[in-house]
Q: What sequence folds into this?
């Protein structure tokens, strides 16, 4: 069994809205191994960003972590003080946000923003050494060191996203959570940014959770993929198995709905809509859309259990039923 | 088939900034393009953001006027159409936009967008007939009328809203649909459904579709032909199979190689040596290849000549001097779909 960098147990996050309680994350168990790249996929509203924010302890009201445990190594992230958590962010666990344009301060120079992060985490040193550290970080993400003197609006989207990567790695965290880091970028730029990110990840051995819904990017970047549906993980397996031998019907439909440039065929979407997370769900949340639905699925919600080869799946179908 | 919409040497320059720091952006550079009805062809217009694909689409729709050149609808300049002609232009050429949230007025129920067009174009003689037409249209895109009508836009998901727009197109049965990134804001699992609905329109009613996108995967699945746009110019155009599977222009090659294949057994093509990021210091003018500052195989001539297309095969043309041994295509006889 490989060493785990991050463990999530039975995590529940609720949002208290006027319409009722939204169960955005509804009981999640997850292990992230050291040095692993784990993809977290799902439709919008499936809870993937909420899970990422909960791990960072950045859920804001009306959201609330109802229960569960998040262990970073042997530190329980739920029980540390706010000041300690603030210190752990960046130095132990960092997040690359979705829209770099909203993550950078528009009125501060890039270099100064990177230095802010370093100083905030008690990185000692003269102004000069901090500045050279910032320039070094920019070069690590394939940017010109002179960028340090520029303002965010003077950079392209791809360059801004590289700056957020430089900030995320600035204190050498053990875990990086990247929430759709390239979804706002063009495909060519995305490719360059991901190449850079992957090079840094391989060199430092950081564990990464990549949140997103671009299955192409997921297939190319990750070692394992966790598929979320209605606030829970329905399947988690090595990336090759997710695509070649999906075990959950939702994964199977998702993979077969993907357009690609190999052969033209009739495209099949997944019929129906994801369930409302306000009303209590009876049975499996995928049952209204599932082509393999059985009697049992209407009343009993399947647990995430061991499936074939290093995988887990939450489905009542017998093993190998979808092969 | 009949020629419906022609773009003749269309150029669009956007001028931004004040008096002192005026900046001119060449969004579309001398594009000549014919769209016919009745051919039942789906043609994709693909390129990165800022390549001018949306601007070209808006010019064809008459929402933006070209700086130079003209757009003709049945042979008449769309800027100078009479009242009757304008009415039929608005019916024959329909748009589907990217954002399924922005096209609705939140104060009106979904029914409103159908009622407006039925009233405007006298599609029905009675209320019952109107209701029947609307229900038929909604069913054609895979939605249930009772779950759609009578609701407000915010009560539908993004995918449902985009399908309602397709249903409206179905109701109008235009000759040409210009669809600008219709699925880029919709979840992956619903994209296929919407694109299939569009394709069904094309198959059942021989509607021609201009599919504007940055996503080559869906372009490949939906379109018969594709045009690749870069910095305002179309650099390669032809059969989608040929262009995507054996790209010729160095930019198309870069674009195709950048797509992450949704299959872990298929490796992402190595980009190294293929092209460099755009070089900010260089002014690219109309008289050179627009890709020259990034191209790894560029030579002296690329910076000096106004490039024509070269016909590299029956069904493909490429604007690149690497193919100068093929016969050049005259400027006024290109891109007929």
A:
């Amino acid at each position: 069994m490989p060493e785990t960098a991050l463990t999530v147990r039975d995590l529940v996050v609720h949002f208290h809205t006027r319409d009722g309680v939204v169960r955005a994350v509804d009981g999640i168990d997850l292990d992230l191994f050291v040095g692993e790249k784990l993809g977290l996929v799902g439709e919008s509203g499936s809870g993937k960003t909420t899970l990422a924010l909960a791990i960072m302890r950045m859920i804001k009201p009306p959201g609330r972590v109802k229960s569960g445990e998040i262990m970073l190594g042997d530190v329980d992230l739920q029980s540390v003080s706010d000041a300690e958590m603030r210190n752990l962010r960046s130095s132990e666990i960092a997040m690359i946000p979705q829209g770099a344009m909203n993550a950078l301060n528009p009125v501060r120079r890039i270099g100064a923003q990177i230095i802010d992060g370093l100083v905030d985490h008690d990185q000692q040193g003269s102004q000069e050494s901090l500045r050279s550290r910032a320039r070094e970080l920019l070069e690590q993400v394939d940017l010109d060191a002179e960028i340090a003197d520029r303002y965010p609006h003077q950079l392209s989207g791809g360059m801004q996203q590289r700056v957020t990567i430089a900030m995320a790695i600035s204190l050498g965290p053990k875990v990086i959570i990247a929430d759709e880091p390239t979804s706002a970028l063009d495909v060519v730029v995305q490719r360059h940014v991901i190449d850079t990110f992957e090079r840094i990840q391989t060199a430092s051995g950081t564990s990464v959770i990549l949140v997103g819904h671009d299955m192409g990017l997921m297939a190319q970047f990750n070692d394992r993929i966790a598929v979320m549906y209605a606030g829970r993980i329905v399947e988690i397996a090595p990336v090759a198995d997710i695509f070649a031998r999906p075990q959950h019907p939702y994964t199977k439909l998702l993979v077969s709905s993907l357009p690609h440039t190999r052969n033209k065929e009739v495209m099949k979407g997944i019929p129906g809509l994801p369930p409302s997370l306000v009303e209590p769900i009876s049975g499996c949340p995928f049952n209204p859309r599932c082509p393999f639905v059985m009697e049992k699925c209407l009343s009993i919600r399947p647990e995430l259990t061991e499936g074939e080869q290093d995988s887990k799946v939450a489905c009542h179908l017998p093993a190998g039923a979808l092969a | 088939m009949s020629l419906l919409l022609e773009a003749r040497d269309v150029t669009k320059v956007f001028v931004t900034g004040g008096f002192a720091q005026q900046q001119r952006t060449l969004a579309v550079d001398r594009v000549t393009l014919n769209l016919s009805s009745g051919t039942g062809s789906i043609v994709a217009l693909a390129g990165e953001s800022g390549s001018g694909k949306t601007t070209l689409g808006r010019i064809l729709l008459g929402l933006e006027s070209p700086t130079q050149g003209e757009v003709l609808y049945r042979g008449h300049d769309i800027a100078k159409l009479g009242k009757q002609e304008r009415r039929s232009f608005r019916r024959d050429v329909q748009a589907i936009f990217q954002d399924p949230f922005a096209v609705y007025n939140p104060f009106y129920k979904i029914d409103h967008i159908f009622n407006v067009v039925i009233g405007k174009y006298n599609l029905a003689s009675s209320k019952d007939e109107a209701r029947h037409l609307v229900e038929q249209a909604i069913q054609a895109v895979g939605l249930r009328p009772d779950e759609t009508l009578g609701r407000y836009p915010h009560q539908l998901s993004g995918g449902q809203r985009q399908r309602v727009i397709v249903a409206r197109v179905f109701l109008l049965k235009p000759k040409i649909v210009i669809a600008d990134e219709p699925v880029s804001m919709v979840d992956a699992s619903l994209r296929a459904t919407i694109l299939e609905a569009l394709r069904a329109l094309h198959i059942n009613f021989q509607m021609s579709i201009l599919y504007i996108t940055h996503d080559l995967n869906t372009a490949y699945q939906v379109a018969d032909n594709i045009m690749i746009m870069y910095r305002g110019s179309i650099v390669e155009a032809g059969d989608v199979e040929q262009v995507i599977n054996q790209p010729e222009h160095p930019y198309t090659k870069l674009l195709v190689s950048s797509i992450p294949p949704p299959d872990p057994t298929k490796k992402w093509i190595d980009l190294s040596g293929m092209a460099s990021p755009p070089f900010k210091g260089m002014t690219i003018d109309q008289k050179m290849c627009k890709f020259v500052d990034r191209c790894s195989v560029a030579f002296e001539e690329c910076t000096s000549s106004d490039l024509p297309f070269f016909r590299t095969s029956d069904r493909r043309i490429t604007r690149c001097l690497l193919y100068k041994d093929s016969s050049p295509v005259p400027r006024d006889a290109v891109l007929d779909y």
